[in-house]
Amino acid sequence: MEQIEKIYEAERIVIYGAGAVANIAYLYISRLGLAERMTAFAVSDMRGNPESKNGLPVMRAEQILSSDRHLLIVVAVQRSTQDAVLAGLTDLGCDAYLVLDPDRLIDSFYETLYESPVVKNKLFFMNYNGCGYGCNPKYIAECLRKRYGKDDLDIVWGIDSDEHMIPDDIRTVRTGTYRYYQEIATAHIWVDNVRKQFDIRKREGQFYIQTWHGAAPMKKVEGDISDKVPESHISASKRDSEMADLFLSGSRFYSDLYRKAFWYDGEILESGLPRQDIFWDTGYAKKQVRGYYHIAEDRRIVLYAPTFRDDLSTDAYDLDIPAVKEAIERKFSCQCVMCVSRHPNNRYIRYHLAPHSYTDVSGYDDFEELLAAADILITDFSGCAYDFSLTGNPVFLYQKDHQEMAAQRDFYVPMEDMPYPRAGTNEGLIKSISDFDRSSYTENLKSFMDRFGSFDDGHASERVCERIMRALNG
Questions:
Q1: Which of 77, 116, 229, 365 is most buried (most C-beta within 10 Å)?
Q2: N-term to C-term CA, the chain
Q3: In sequence order, what are the residues at sequence separation of 6 or more whose Cβ sits closer than 8 angstroms to the Cβ of residue 19?
Q4: Cβ–Cβ under 8 Å, residues 223 and 261
Q5: Nearest Cα to 7, choosing from 39, 36, 29, 35?
């Protein structure tokens, strides 16, 4: 009550945080009728954060406090980061703040949501925290829509903006809104491809399918890097695995990895990955992507799709696009279009590439369609190399920061054992392109892919949908 009184007394309010707890705090304060008093979200570092949230600016705490001291700071972060936030506020000379108990806040919030029952035929889908209609969730939804009728299922999709291309018969909801949490709290089935965060609570009667987004033995993940990532990441992963009822696996490699490094001992469906089904018939994807970006049929598509860095740095994204384009056109006797796709974790970050030298395809919802439409892939340490290998087309690795990445993440398979030509400089990459030998590449690629026991055969989506229907009717 004392905290509520302080919030009521404040003329202007800033929420410190821009994540899961801050989402709930914003909604809580709004439901107190004080939405007009909130002026901004404060963060310690703008890297990786949006410029606005819920219509309010996201700003560094130092910038906010330097211009306005007469406000109340409501600290809404997880316990693991509270001490660091409070130390920062002390350094800034701020004493007008209150710290919310994240567990009590969220538990109280869900008490109201749980007044509505679970809806038996409702399924809630998410892709990369709201990044549109793509990855495994999309291909599962497409199969459900085709095989089981649009009128029998209520499919809801969480999105982070209205720019995404979602089918008309799928209801959408903006992430972080009150209705978003209502839909999650009353859905019978959840389908997601990344870890659910601290603001999500699962109740009895709900069934959670974690499709995951990885397919390749590239960067180490989860428990295999527990000494290299924040404790908040580990706790979120463990909590997500505790909520999950089913994991999807695309290979023996990933089935073993879930047991070893994902803190998961539940059911694994060795179905193959639904998103990989597209590689058994790429014609539709090629038509869609070329039509969307107005790429002529006589142009080859070269896709540059590097992964994110844990520190969100952009130094490694310095591909010399004009020179690489020239090398590819010379080697493969073609004209090509260079396309760049940023990783979903980098959607608020700009790469410093030569302007007007490429087509930015980061806003395309379905990254798998981009892969299926491409003729050549350039990446670094991304698992998309494995997905793209199903096409048999050339993959080139540009790894400027190989040593740093090896120290930060390490790899399941040494990079020198990968079948893909690799280089650490633009000059080296151009030489790799010039020296490319398709026959030896094809032989090495097949040997590599056979090692990991793939379950993919073009019918993964069907197997997953059958399992969903058993869960709905069980």
A1: 77
A2: 44
A3: 77, 78, 197, 198
A4: yes
A5: 29
For residue 28, what are the CA distances in angstroms to 12, 105, 107, 119, 373?
16, 8, 12, 25, 45
Q: Are residues 230 and 295 in the same domain?
A: no
Distances (CA, A) of 249 to 242, 357, 463: 17, 38, 12
Q: What is the mean pLDDT of residues 291-320?
A: 91
- Strands of 310-458 (E only): list them: 335-340, 359-360, 376-379, 395-398, 422-423
425 and 308 in one domain? yes
Q: Is the dihedral of CA 350, 356, 358, 362 positive or negative?
A: positive
* pTM value surpassing 0.85: yes
**Is the CB of residue 426 less than 8 Å from the CB of residue 245?**
no
- Two tokens, residue 306: 């590097």
Residue 190: phi, psi to the nearest 5? -110, 140
- State residue 348's pLDDT score: 66
Highest mean pLDDT among 63-67, 100-104, 195-199, 394-398: 394-398
Q: Look up the CATH number of the domain holding residue 182.
A: 3.40.50.11820
Instruction: Show Cβ contacts of residue 379 under 8 Å, excluding neighbours closer than 6 positions.
Output: 304, 305, 306, 307, 385, 395, 396, 397, 398
- CATH number of the domain that residue 344 is part of: 3.40.50.12580
**Cα–Cα distance between 411 and 415 in angstroms, integer?**
7
Choosing from 110, 125, 159, the residue where a domain stops is: 110
From the number of C-beta atoms within 10 Å of its C-beta (0-12, 13-18, 19+), residue 240 rates as buried
What are residue 220's phi and psi, to 5 degrees? -70, 150
Query: CA-to-CA distance for 348 and 50, rounded, in angstroms?
Result: 6
Q: Please, are residues 304 and 375 in contact by the beta-carbon 8 Å criterion? A: no
For residue 305, report the phi and psi dihedrals to the nearest 5 degrees. -140, 80
Residue with the larger pLDDT of the pair 350 and 228: 228
List pLDDT tens digits, range 348-360. Answer: 677 878 888 999 9
Range of the domain at 25: 2-110
* Count of structural domains, the chain: 3
